[in-house]
Design a protein that fits this description.
Length: 187
Amino acid sequence: MSFHILYMMQTNIIVADGEINKDTPEKFQKFLDTSPLDGSIYIVALNSDGGNLNAGLKLGRLIRKNKLDTTVAKYPYVGKDNPNSHNAANGGCFSSCALAFLGGRRRFIKPDDRLGFHQFSRAKSSIESMSPTLITQAATQLVGADILDYIVDMGVNPLLYSNLSRSLPAEIFIPDADLMRDLNILT
């Protein structure tokens, strides 16, 4: 995932775009350390198909720790050849990105942006003394508890966990605006 800031008067956008991998939380922390955040409002605009589950949870916790807001949006690259691209296109935030989104102190999306959750999946553990079935069952329960704890810590209704657990990894649960408000996904 890459990060850069779009300065827009009193509300600035931290553009977070791309795959969430195991190094994403560390990259985000380094970005925050080298990009002084003044008294302005900062909104993290997420656009990602997801990636590493644990990294998504850590990213969300960093967002919360730094009292940042979150939204879903896709911003074009801003550089010398494109200096004034402050208009967002419709974005998508799925899988571990959707969990990171929950880290926002305040969370919101525009009607055409997409926020999608699904059942988590994880590679098998390498513990040799247990059968593959027991390893899978134990790991599933531990990760499920971590995700549920995270959802509750972020102030989101725990019923979100039930809904995302019913969506297989190849499926996406996309709640409508009313359900997002009911579940406190949007603040």
